């Protein structure tokens, strides 16, 4: 059948594990289904009225039988559960070295931002064999990022960062769907993941030629007037942002928060929510003035201000809680 | 008119339209429910036909995108809240519970009538929503789509569901008090029919879970009208909070649909096997276990929602735990057949169909309880197929079986048996033809709620739509022959199946207060004997 092969063949590092478990379950459940159905049919035939069969004795209870079919399924279920959480943990545990890519979902499109500034809509180009981490948020309703060939899915929520990761292991084009109902054109919120050989990917990446995300953020930083207060020559009392990312920030209420992407996003959009200790609560909100993509660019810029940057600038872009 | 050999039936006296609309008789109220619920079943069914027609081909060529979204919303809202949840409790439970307990009526007859009017009022709001142009949120009303983004008549449908919730709460309350206070002399708890036990468990779930739904619906209304910021992230609200509240009701709601179905099947199978049900006490324990543990598994709807991994693991474990009592029940029904004297009248065919479809629905539930598989399968057609197996294959098959089993009792008429058997078999095959392909579609990755889809899903969808046509035909058949039997069916004796429940010891249809003398109970509910049934059959031959 046309196209089935492309859909059914797993293309990520976890796809084979998921398929193995799925088909093991199909075999197990198929066996149970068959066994019960055959028993039902056999009993129905053998004990139909008028058949010559032994009907002596009371067979309306048997403690041994009942305990058997309570305990055996119980043990089986615990086994399936254990198998499943092992695999679930693998699906959920992000590798440190994953390439970070941002996704902003909106009715009805997927907008992708690479760290080097390239943007794509409804498609995502990635090299084969390298783990990719998506940090996702929505500009409106709940969406869900679903790549059947990779056997993964993650809801994308407004006002929150969710993450997923995968390592594509086959080149080709794979379907991307929105799996959470999101309004009129939900069914059209589709895209494709293009997995390329490293050489082809390098060519594609070079052809982009855009500014890095951090650079775009820097431009926004000036344009929006952030630099007036947070810049080195500022006269207004505002925290210095250099080296802030990933560090603990004491707050005016006495608690401490880690300056991760969520904290920076809140500070830009809801500045009064968590005010840094020692600074007045005077920053204006940028809510409804900038969109999620701008927030991501600004965050990337603030992250790049680290005086002692990580050797790989694409590491640890975001640490949203999972 | 009264039969020569029996007292005036509840159907005949008093007469007149008014006497029906103001009746306090639980049996008449059950019939009012049956009429309203049947109407809603065909409204929901018409929406299903539209959906499957649209999906017969990959292009969205029959309905617009919004039209499709409204169709599946109507289908879900009507089928869940106006058919599946009230069907067995409000129709069969209402009519049968007092009869089975040997009581004259339910504990609160006026409250019972009020429940029906609330149901009807809720229905009017929902139909008004439909006439005003429909809603497009799906039956789950996920925020912030339902509160901020949908331009449809969300408020009308939310008000409708809110009102019908009270009908459910009041019915549950009525049943619980009736079961506690009005059992006939001698009927202690472990002599109660399993159907009454399932009504008890279901009622507990109804009165504990439904208020949470009602509250959630009020919050949606407040959020939509006043923008109070409970679910709206822009105001600091949490869209996931809605999902927790919603599923806290809506997962137990699955057991509101399935437990009564299990009760019906547990009455039918012993009767046509002529044997006591296997493991009567284990059946009761598993009913109560399902009702209780069923409250703690709601988070399995949210494995990819953004809730923590650890929450996912706990909800997964609990979901496997709740599967154990369900497995026990399937094995016990099967064991009941052993050494029985089995006949295959229509109710029995429906009951056997139920066991098969419920088994497949339950087994595929294990796939979804397993977190790692659920990540891939959730929000695809695998889920659609799974819950249709439980809710349509299971609950509707049992409802049909129950309607056929107690039809002679309630109406005093027999239906054409050959037609009934044919419909039961057609329903079973039509159902599998419709929903089996959807498991494959789901594994291949076809998402739910798509009005157009990629061409590689075309063939399986075409199969599914073909099956839906067969299934729709199978559902129309009983409407035809049962209506016919009301006017032309042969008169039924008091106990056409030679069943042992108390409800069979009064005339068919029963008199207004059920029993001329209060029955006394001195044994279990299923005093059947296979060898005696064999001997009687031989004597007749």
TrEMBL record, chain A:
UniProt-listed InterPro entries: CcO_II, CcO_II-like_C, Copper_CuA, Cupredoxin, Cyt_c-like_dom, Cyt_c-like_dom_sf, Cyt_c_oxidase_su2, Cyt_c_oxidase_su2_TM_dom
Cytochrome oxidase subunit II copper A binding domain residues: 96-207
Listed cofactors: Cu cation
PROSITE patterns: COX2, COX2_CUA, CYTC
Record carries keyword Translocase: yes
Gene3D superfamilies in UniProt: 1.10.287.90, Cupredoxins - blue copper proteins (2.60.40.420), Cytochrome c-like domain (1.10.760.10)
Coiled coil: none
Pfam families: COX2, COX2_TM, Cytochrom_C
Residues passing through the membrane, by range: 20-45, 66-89
Protein localization: Cell membrane; Membrane
Primary site of residence: membrane
UniProt remark on cofactor binding: Binds a copper A center.
Reactions listed under catalytic activity: 4 Fe(II)-[cytochrome c] + O2 + 8 H(+)(in) = 4 Fe(III)-[cytochrome c] + 2 H2O + 4 H(+)(out)
Key words, A-Z: Copper, Electron transport, Heme, Iron, Membrane, Metal-binding, Respiratory chain, Translocase, Transmembrane, Transmembrane helix, Transport
Domain Cytochrome c: 212-306
Bilayer disposition of the protein: Multi-pass membrane protein
EC number: 7.1.1.9
The keyword ATP-binding is annotated on this UniProt entry: no
Origin superkingdom: Bacteria
Family stated for the protein in its record: Belongs to the cytochrome c oxidase subunit 2 family.
Chain's role: Subunits I and II form the functional core of the enzyme complex. Electrons originating in cytochrome c are transferred via heme a and Cu(A) to the binuclear center formed by heme a3 and Cu(B).
PANTHER family noted in UniProt: CYTOCHROME C OXIDASE SUBUNIT 2, CYTOCHROME C OXIDASE, SUBUNIT II
Protein name: Cytochrome c oxidase subunit 2
Native species: Banduia mediterranea
Gene: coxB
Automatic annotation (TrEMBL), chain B:
Cytochrome oxidase subunit I profile domain: residues covered: 20-522
PROSITE patterns per the UniProt record, alphabetical: COX1 (PS50855), COX1_CUB (PS00077)
Record flagged with keyword Cell membrane: yes
Positions in coiled-coil regions: none
Keywords: Cell membrane, Copper, Electron transport, Heme, Iron, Membrane, Metal-binding, Respiratory chain, Translocase, Transmembrane, Transmembrane helix, Transport
Family that this chain belongs to: Belongs to the heme-copper respiratory oxidase family.
Name the record gives this protein: Cytochrome c oxidase subunit 1
């Amino acid at each position: 059948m046309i196209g089935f092969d492309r859909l059914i063949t797993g293309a990520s590092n976890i796809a084979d594990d998921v398929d193995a478990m799925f088909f093991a379950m199909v075999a197990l459940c198929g066996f149970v289904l068959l066994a019960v159905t055959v028993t039902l049919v056999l009993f129905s035939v053998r004990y139909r009225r008028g058949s010559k069969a032994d009907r002596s004795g009371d067979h309306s209870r048997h403690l041994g039988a009942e305990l058997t079919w309570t305990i055996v399924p119980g043990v089986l279920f615990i086994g399936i559960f254990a198998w499943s959480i092992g695999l679930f943990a693998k699906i959920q545990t992000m590798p440190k070295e994953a390439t970070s890519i941002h996704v902003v979902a909106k009715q009805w499109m997927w907008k992708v931002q690479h760290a080097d500034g390239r943007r794509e809509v409804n498609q995502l180009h990635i090299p084969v064999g390298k783990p990719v981490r998506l940090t996702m948020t929505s500009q409106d309703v709940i969406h869900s990022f679903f790549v059947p060939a990779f056997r993964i899915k993650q809801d994308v929520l407004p006002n929150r960062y969710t993450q997923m990761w995968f390592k594509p292991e086959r080149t080709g084009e794979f379907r991307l769907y929105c799996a959470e109902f999101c309004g009129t054109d939900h069914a059209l919120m589709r895209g494709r993941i293009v997995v390329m050989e490293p050489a082809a990917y390098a060519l594609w990446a070079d052809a982009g030629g855009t500014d890095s995300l951090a650079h775009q953020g820097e431009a926004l930083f000036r344009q929006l007037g952030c630099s007036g207060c947070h810049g080195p020559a500022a006269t207004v009392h505002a925290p210095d942002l250099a080296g802030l990312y990933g560090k603990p920030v004491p707050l005016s209420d006495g608690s401490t928060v880690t300056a991760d992407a969520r904290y920076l996003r809140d500070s830009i959009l809801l500045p009064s929510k968590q005010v840094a200790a020692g600074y007045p609560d005077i920053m204006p909100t940028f809510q409804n003035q900038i969109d999620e993509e701008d927030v991501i660019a600004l965050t990337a810029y603030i992250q790049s201000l680290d005086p002692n940057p990580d050797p790989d600038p694409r590491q640890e872009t975001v640490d949203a809680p999972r | 008119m009264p039969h020569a050999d029996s007292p005036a039936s509840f159907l005949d006296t008093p007469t007149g339209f008014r006497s029906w609309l103001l009746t306090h008789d639980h049996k008449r109220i059950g019939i009012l429910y049956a009429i309203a619920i049947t109407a809603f079943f065909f409204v929901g069914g018409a929406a299903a036909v539209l959906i499957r027609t649209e999906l017969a081909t990959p292009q969205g060529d029959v309905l617009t995108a919004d039209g499709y979204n409204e169709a599946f919303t109507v289908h879900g809202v009507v089928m869940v809240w106006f058919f599946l949840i009230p069907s067995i409790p409000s129709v069969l439970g209402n009519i049968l519970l007092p009869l089975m307990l040997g009581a004259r009526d339910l504990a609160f007859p006026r409250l019972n009538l009020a429940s029906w009017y609330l149901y009807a009022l809720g229905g009017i709001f929902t139909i008004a929503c439909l006439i005003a142009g429909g809603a497009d949120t799906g039956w789950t009303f996920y925020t912030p789509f339902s509160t901020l983004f949908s331009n449809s008549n969300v408020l009308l449908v939310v008000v409708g569901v809110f009102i019908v919730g009270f009908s459910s709460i009041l019915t549950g309350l009525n049943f619980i008090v009736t079961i506690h206070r009005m059992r006939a002399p001698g009927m202690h708890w472990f002599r109660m029919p399993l159907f009454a036990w399932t009504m008890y468990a279901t009622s507990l779930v109804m009165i504990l879970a439904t208020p949470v739904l009602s509250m959630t619906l009020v919050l949606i209304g407040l959020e939509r009208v006043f923008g109070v910021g409970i679910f709206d992230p822009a105001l600091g609200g949490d869209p996931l909070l809605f999902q927790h509240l919603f599923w806290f009701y809506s997962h137990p709601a699955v057991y509101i649909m399935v437990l009564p179905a299990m009760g019906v099947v547990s009455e039918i199978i012993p009767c046509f096997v002529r044997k006591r049900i296997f493991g009567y006490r284990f059946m009761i324990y598993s009913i109560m276990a399902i009702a209780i543990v069923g409250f703690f598994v709601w988070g399995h709807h949210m494995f990819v929602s953004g809730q923590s991994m650890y929450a996912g693991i706990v909800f997964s474990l609990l979901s496997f735990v709740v599967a154990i009592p369900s497995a026990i029940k399937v094995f016990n029904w099967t064991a009941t057949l052993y050494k029985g004297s089995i006949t295959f009248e229509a109710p029995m065919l429906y009951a056997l169909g139920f066991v098969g479809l419920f088994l497949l629905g339950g087994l595929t539930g294990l796939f979804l309880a397993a977190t790692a598989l659920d990540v891939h399968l959730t929000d695809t057609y695998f889920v659609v197929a799974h819950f249709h197996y439980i809710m349509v294959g299971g609950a509707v098959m049992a409802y049909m079986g129950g309607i056929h089993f107690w039809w002679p009792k309630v109406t005093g008429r027999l239906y054409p048996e050959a037609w009934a058997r044919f419909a039961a078999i057609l329903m079973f095959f039509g159902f599998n033809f419709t929903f089996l392909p959807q498991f494959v579609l789901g594994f291949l990755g076809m998402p739910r709620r798509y009005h157009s889809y990629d061409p590689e899903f075309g063939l399986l969808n075409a199969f599914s739509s073909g099956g839906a046509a067969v299934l729709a035909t199978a559902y129309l058949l009983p409407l035809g022959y049962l209506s016919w039997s009301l006017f032309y069916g042969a008169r039924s004796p008091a106990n056409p199946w030679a069943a042992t429940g108390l409800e069979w010891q009064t005339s068919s249809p029963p008199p207004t207060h059920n029993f001329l003398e209060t029955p006394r109970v001195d044994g279990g509910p299923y005093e059947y004997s296979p060898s005696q049934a064999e001997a009687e059959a031989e004597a007749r031959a």
